[in-house]
Amino acid sequence: MSAACVAQDSAAPGGDTMPAQTIAEPQIINCGVFAANDPKLDPISKLCGFALTYRTKLPDFIARQTTTSRGPRSTVVITAQVTYRKGVEQHSEVAINGKPVPPKGPVYADLHFFTNGEFGPMLINLFEVPGAIEFTFVKDATLLGEPVAVFDFHLPKSKNTFWTIHDPRGETLNPEFRGHLWLEKQTGRIKREELEAIVDAWQTGITSMKLSADFSMTKVSDVGTFLLPAKSESTVCMIGRLGAQAGCVNNATTFHDYQKFVATSRVVPAEPAP
To answer: 181 forms bridges with which residues in the sheet?
Structure first.
């Protein structure tokens, strides 16, 4: 059994590389409306303005991605190179437990559960569809010693056109989601995002599905410092035979070794005429 949770601009997985991601054209939204309706939502307004231009302002870079997937019977480590160029994300050099995935091989054959969206969609989708997601201020708090504002958000099933689940039967669903945001109080800069899908276990075979992503100011060698994902974690629990819980799969992903993308080329001399 396997499951997946993908953001709006992620393609279906397959082949010897993970799918490229493209930037969707955002709808027109007035980011100031959040703070205008409730002053406590001022960090949300600031995050909105940042999110809608986030991917176009990132530099071209490469990074390494390492995912450790722990299930009831095995642990799988999948590694890949992430290339981010002109707003498009591409994964390559995929290896499972240190063994390169062969051409046209199933990247996720041993992973059982995967997610997409850490390099933009999870953040951008919060605001791309005006009025789809409702935000509520919860409290002031601290996260890793820094003051933050904590917000809840809710995406009704009727308004979800961008967060998708592929359940163990292969069905595609756009369920209800609830989540939380930890934002810097003054700037609205995101520190952490958590998502939870609200699903019918008997309909989907999934009893729970939770995702989180942590962001930090990260140095990209020879370019500068940018807000980028540092790590993410996802957990899905599924029903087994006769309604018993089959077990849970936990994926812990780290993003590291960010470097400037440099295109290379090779000149091949023409063969001499016979």
So the answer is: 151, 193
What is the spatial distance between Cα 93 and Cα 70, in angstroms, rounded to a whole number?
22
| Dihedral Cα 194, 140, 143, 145, nearest 10 deg | 170
Alpha carbon distance 52, 254 (integer Å): 24
Tokens coding 106 = 């199933």
pLDDT in tens, 9-27: 533 333 333 333 444 444 5
Q: Please give the Cα distance from 19 to 9 (Å, whole number).
A: 10
3-state secondary structure labels for all residues of 74-103: CEEEEEEEEEEECCEEEEEEEEECCEECCC
The order of strands in the sheet holding 164-166 is: 113-115, 3-6, 164-166, 172-173
DSSP state of 55: H
pLDDT tens string 31-81: 999 999 999 999 999 999 999 988 888 899 999 999 999 988 889 999 999
In the structure encoding, which two tokens stand for residue 207, read together? 């009893």
